[in-house]
Fold these 3 entries.
Entry 1:
Amino acid sequence: MPKTICLLTALLLAAAVCPAQSLDGRALNVEGAKNAYTPVSVPCDAQAPDTTVQVVSKKTGAACPATIAGGELVFVPQAADGAYEVKVLKEAKPAAVQIAKADGADELTVKVNGEDFTSYHYSNENKKPFLWPVLAEGGATITRNWPMGEDKYASKDHPHHKSLWVSYGDLNGVDCWGEGKNSGFQHSGEVTFGSGDAFGWIRAKNVWQDKNHKPVIDEEREYRFYASPADARMLDLSVTFTASYGTVKFGDTKEGGILAYRIRPEIQASYDNKETGVRMKKGTMSNVNGSGGNVWGKASPWTDYSGEIEGVGVRGLAAFDHAGNLRHPTTWHFRDYGLNGANCFGLSYFTKGKENGDYELAEGKSLTFKYRVIIHSGDVEEAQIAERYAAYANPPKVTWAK
């Protein structure tokens, strides 16, 4: 290759990536920031400084929290296009998203702007890791507390529905969805975490095993918890499966959700407790085609479950399927009794036998799923869930100014 071409290539790469020695004062351009609190990233090889980093809008003067991690600078432009500038402050302020190890427990606590948001439980005394509680604005739990805690309107069915979790019911015939005596395990290995201003993160390595603890598949996940306001708490989930022990077939079953949650009982679309005689039809199930109606097993880029919590107001949980996921838009195991799971494999159930969802992951290959979760105030329209999904699917474009 001619030297002039090599030099030109090197200059282009240098312009695309933030040089470590000149982070403070570097200029950025943002295009397409139509929705507030949509995280964006740009390549950055600078090492995170010991002090606080902000990205400031030259148009509005707003200082956006920023995090440098994994070769990226991540910040939230807050619906303002145009020029931004990186500022490295002289002092270190407490991170907006704080993640810490709980004393004496395999648990990581997550606080956003000083308020409790959730905890990650990864003890191998449980069959799988999970997030609980998951708190909406006002401190109310958005997911079911049982069986880890108690709910005002008890719904003591399906004990394997633990708040917000990752699982699937047929991996080479192994059930890692249920928690009966014949079901498998998700064995927690290395767990790392970090706090930050734009986001804090948890990364975990797990081995999914059969009932005799024989390894079936490796899985790595990352949770990113963003410094979003209390009325729209936000997290991203990335799950990567690697067939380290031979080919793995994800068998066609409705029993699964790579992202799954159980909504709190008051928000269920239908609630019937035979023990207490309490019956309610209170919550609303929505997807891209609207609210109500038959949403079980339907393909949609997003879903939402919302309803009124006594003394708190309307709260909801929206789940987004990433455009790069297998079989996007995914089908959803979306039930009126409170369950929702992103399941692109259970097609024979969702299509009444017209399609088969089996999928084989060859030995040594990997398969990644990505999702966004928003815990919001207001209903699906008031929280602008359709607009927020559009911003997730087509995020603002960010480039380093030349």
Note: The mean pLDDT is 91.
Entry 2:
Amino acid sequence: MTQSTQLWSIVLAAGEGTRLQGLTRDETGRVVPKQFYRIDGDTSMLRWTLDRVGTVVPGHRIVPIVADQHRRWWGSELAAVPQANIVVQPRNRGTVAGILLPLLNLTLRDPDATVLVTPSDHHMDDTRAFRRMVAQAEETIAEEPERIVLIGVPARRPDPELGWLVPVPRAPESRAPWESSYGSVRYDVAEFVEKPDIRLAARLQREGAFWNTGIVVARAQALLGLIRSALAEVHDRFLTAVEEGLFDDPNVVLDLYDEIGSFDFCRDVLEPSAGHLTLLTLPDESWVDLGTEGRIQEWRGRRAHRAGLGENARWRSGSVATVPSGAPRSVPLEPSRIAADRPHA
């Protein structure tokens, strides 16, 4: 086992949230980017994320990336974050740039860092499961420093708007995948499928693939290596700009962002890199992506259901009923069957 390293976190909070603009408006009718919207009437999704991450990473090692045009919202939200940690990008050029810029910045300060990358539009009910999952991801990386750990959950429906993680199939006589004392299972990844069509999503769910939560844990250098192997020119241009301090010049930054194009981390980096990925599973009900109105309604319904159970429990004399865990244990499927379901170009 290799020596442990300090854990940092990159919080992705620079998106526009265009799919939710009909919902995320303030009292004047102005659109609020989803990560700053107080979806429960009290707390923004970004604040949920910072509080959750703060249970495993100290505040001075949390690195949010935000958009310059959103300053009116993140200025107050990030008041407690060290100013040197706040990475501001001038334009949205996809999640590769959104991860690469803060990743390069933090590796200048801590070249041996381990990093937890997380979106800021999720809700997670079970913070204890999250903490345990991060600890297990760190253990996995200590054993295999080049692995990229992705957190997945059992799929509840054939959602074509999410990424899917296909576990490596195992022969019946082979050793079962690793399982922790709190129910998480670790698999190697056979294939990463980003936003499949509905027919393929239905097949993936039926045969045991997992939803990708977008949460990544990895050694910073391993993650940089993965990005470089997929997008060498983008990586090298960002690396040169960061090392030479060019991001201090706004004109240089704008020129770079104008020239690099837009790349998606899941589609352009993770999909072609399945052999480097490890999957750790979270409990079924502990996570929800709040990136669409439909998922928000689902989340509100689940909250109301739990609140109803709690209220009803006050009138019961016996034990409180519990909500079933939902999805059965997933059975890995053959990647060749997935390929057969892909739409032809």
Note: The chain has one domain: 7-341.
Entry 3:
Amino acid sequence: MDPTLLKVSLLCYGARSPPDFDKGRCGGAGPAGGGYLVLDGTATPSTNVAFQGHHVRNSPFSIEKVGEECLLCQDNAPSIAVRLVERPAFLDNRTSEGIPVWKIASFHGSDAIGVTIDKNCYYWRNKQQCKFCAIEQKIKTHSGKSLAIKTPQQVSDAIEAAVESGFCHHVTLTTGIAETPDRGATPYIPILREIRRNLKTPVHVQLEPPQDLEMLGRLYEEGADTVGLHIESLDEKVKRRVCPGKPPDRVYFRAWKYAEKTFGQNQVSTFILVGLGEDPKLTDRRLENVTSAGAIPFVTPFRPLLGTELENEDPPNPSYLLGITEKAVVKMKDSGMKPNENRAGCVRCGACSAIMEVF
């Protein structure tokens, strides 16, 4: 199978795995419930493959371990050797406070870590949470394990341990949404300041657009290299249904334009989740608006996470996802964007999207 089509198929379907197989984290921010496979021929080092979820049971793919070798099997097709990105040893290191790093950070892709600085989300408290999201679910299921709120010292210690191990070349920081006008941006400032005391590792921050966009400039001044302002869907009807707490689209377009002037070209991105019932023609038209506003459309499939309202929904068809990805890449090229010049975060990692392969 063509490497790009294989990646897109795995992003959508996931893969069945043996009972004793490490199926990844349950809950938390982002596309959880899986692991990272290294596939031959892809532009990015790894691919995020779901190993958990109801949809995985019907996947045409399965993983088998034969000794030290990992085989990817597909119905009615020869198996191929792949490499599973193993859990890095630095996660068992301890911070200056004696806290295991895995309570603070998780590894992403093949050369990055992610830290959710605060798992509390205002939208969950007022019952407006995004229906695909599991950020607060992890607070309940992992009580006493991972930390809900991290201090600047803890975050810096975790990044330093990852960098010293040779694993980490860039970092993603994310957070739940705050009720305050800054939408949760202010806590990033002391964290970035602490990171920059000792480290030059590129850092990506994710947040909802703050009411005062000058806050984005402060994050840049304190050391953030790239920013993610995630609209999730370009079909506003879908966004209102699936992400009822999120602000109107115009808020994102305004923030992207401001952010590109601050962070520079190719350093601003937004998640575009595919497979939530969006109008494909509307999505195609609005992709041009996204790139014109300065944001890289990080096209990725909706993943039905266990314990969320959409856990029993189906992910998109791979051909549909690939079609939207190809249209996004055309719009990026027309706007002069180069996603491979992004310095940190999801775009640089590329494990959850095929935009780099198509580009």
Note: DSSP finds twelve helices and twelve strands in the chain.
